[in-house]
Amino acid sequence: EAQVTQNPRYLITVTGKKLTVTCSQNMNHEYMSWYRQDPGLGLRQIYYSMNVEVTDKGDVPEGYKVSRKEKRNFPLILESPSPNQTSLYFCASSPLTSGSQYEQYFGPGTRLTVT
Amino acid sequence: GENVEQHPSTLSVQEGDSAVIKCTYSDSASNYFPWYKQELGKGPQLIIDIRSNVGEKKDQRIAVTLNKTAKHFSLHITETQPEDSAVYFCAVSGATGTASKLTFGTGTRLQVTL
Questions:
Q1: Using CB atoms, which residue from A4, A50, A100 is nearest to B100?
Q2: Is B101 a residue whose pLDDT tops 80?
Q3: Considering Cα of A55, then A60, then A64, then A70, what sign does the dihedral take?
Q4: Would you write out chain A's pLDDT as a tens digit for each of its 115 residues?
Q5: CA–CA separation, A77 and A41 (whole Å)
Q6: Residue A72, Cβ density class (10 Å: 0-12 exposed, 13-18 middle, ≥19 buried)
Q7: pLDDT tens-digit map of B55-89
Q8: Which residue in A15, A68, B49, B98 could disulfide with A49, CB within 3.0 to 4.6 Å?
Q9: Is A40 exposed, middle or buried (0-12, 13-18, 19+ CB in 10 A)?
């Protein structure tokens, strides 16, 4: 089944404790992206990647890191989480060349709470 | 950067009625306008999209209209059903000509009542 998977789905952590949220897609998509969803703010892009070893900042990159060492994986790293990073996070992927060129396929989300 | 406004934030309709959600955007160079549906506990899913060279697109009970001059586009759902209840997001892209930048609206929670 074609899908984007994220782990963990739920995470409660404390301020300053490094964490990684994994994202993997099995559709051989070039493009991958991370968003955070907050009430009243919609989805805001954190980082995106056009291909392996190519990453760029989105609208709200502060406090986050990403890497793209393999095409299928795009982990989101919080080196020193803070309470304002409490949010619902979504990973998405997209085929840059297809009939529906820009459709993004979203993972199920990771709800992160930082205390 | 791009600014997308979405209205209303909540919408309640009776089953069988129509629902309309509107979005405005700021960058006249934008050329791709998708709509995503997010059901409870799930990630958003594309339901329909339109490109700037088209004024209207339909897919069964769902349609999207685009007015590039006024920089707004709308989602129309006819004959609403309980399973249409969800949060709907508009998005805008394409100023750079790639899929690298989707700017989303703030979402509309649609409730279809029996």
A1: A50
A2: no
A3: negative
A4: 889 999 999 999 999 999 999 999 999 998 999 999 999 899 999 999 988 999 999 999 999 999 999 999 999 999 999 999 999 999 999 887 544 456 889 999 999 999 9
A5: 22
A6: middle
A7: 999 999 999 999 999 999 999 999 999 999 999 99
A8: A68
A9: exposed
From the list B1, B45, B106, the residue facing A40 with the nearest CB is: B106
Give dist(CA A45, CA A58) in Å, integer: 5
Determine, for residues A90 and B106 on separate chains, whether the beta-carbon distance falls below 8 Å. no
Long-range contacts of residues A55-63, Cβ cutoff 8 Å, at least 24 apart:
A56/B100, A58/A33, A58/A34, A58/B101, A59/B1, A59/B103, A60/A36
Is residue A32 within 8 A of residue A23, CB to CB? The reply is yes
Q: What is the residue whose two structure tokens read 């493009």?
A: A31
